[in-house]
Amino acid sequence: MRYAADPHDLLRWYDAHARDLPWRVSPADRAAGVHPDPYRIWLSEVMLQQTTVAAVKAYFERFTTLWPTVTDLAAAPDAQVMGEWAGLGYYARARNLLKCARVVAAEHGGTFPDTRAGLMDLPGIGPYTAAAIAAIAFDRSEVVVDGNVERVMARLHDIHTPLPKAKPDLTEAAAALTPESRPGDYAQAVMDLGATICTPKSPACGLCPWMQTCAARRAGTAADLPRKTPKKPKPTRLGYAYVARRSDGAWLLEERPDSGLLGGMLGWPGSDWNDAPAPAPPMNADWHMIDAEARHTFTHFHLRLRILVAEVAPHSTPERGTFHPQHSFRPAHLPTVMRKVFDLAQNALADTI
Known about the structure:
Number of helices: 14
Radius of gyration: 24 Å
Helix content: 40-55%
Shape: globular
Strand content: 5-15%
Structural class: alpha+beta
Largest sheet: 3 strands, mixed
Strand order of the largest sheet: 1-5-4
Order of helices and strands: HHHHHHHHHHHHHEEEEEEH
Distance between the termini: 71 Å
């Protein structure tokens, strides 16, 4: 049996407890006629994919300071945007971010489409992101279902079907509650409820505005939901990374292919990543393998990189990659796994070469 929750109870809770987020228009300001900036909503939603609010805030504020509008972002150099994105992960998002910004600037006059269908025509915007932007930025009555919403719906209706199989039922439950009035605030309210009250562990049921209508609370199963199909263990892949420093301080880096992991990002030349990688030095040099390896976990596998370092002459010519002068090299612009390599290699170069 499903119990009838009232979306207006949640909206009253949201009016009093909405999180203060840099991309959000507060419920009070929205009631006073302030409209969200679609650019900021889009940017935040892309950044938040598979990433936490805490991790995104600083990136969002830096991006919107550097590029206050979508046309500013569209005109930005690829390398600068990719560098500022470094550390957020899932780098295909950054490439699609630029593609989308340039389409909005060139084909839509710098104005985002205001419907879910129109938004889905843009590069890098899928069903969830289109629904979220349409609801939050344009107050369209769209069903917005992220991980927080799935958890709230699973508990509210005591749905025990494991994810991802449960997604259609959870989406149906979310759709039944999505109101015609204030749908943007409602979408944010459900996400806030999942992030602050209906949390994955130890939900604070006594503070929940839907406490009386929550089927899982009545059944005593809230802490066990949502159920998830067990994940297969992640395999481990191996590889080599080569860190060469010229005697004038320049570092040898290469841009990774646009497709694939870390696409379009700068990194250290290296081998393929597999069970038995073959050495692949980018140039002839006196390579030293250091007594440490960089370890990193991606979505589908763990990675262990053996690191080789070398100090080379000023006029050395690499077979792959380009030497970057020390004054223009910013380790912070490297993706996380490559920064781990750099930290270990830098110490080894200082100690042994």
